[in-house]
Amino acid sequence: MVDIYQPWLLGWLGRQGLANTDAEDLVQDILLVVLKEMPYFRHNQRVGAFRSWLRTIAVHRLQDALRARRYRPVATGDGQVIEQMRQLEDPDSPLTAQWEREHDRHVVGRLLSLLEPDFQPATFEAFRRVMLQGQAPAAVAAELGISVNAVLLAKSRILGRLRQEARDLIAEV
Question: What pTM does this model have?
Answer without folding.
Answer: 0.62
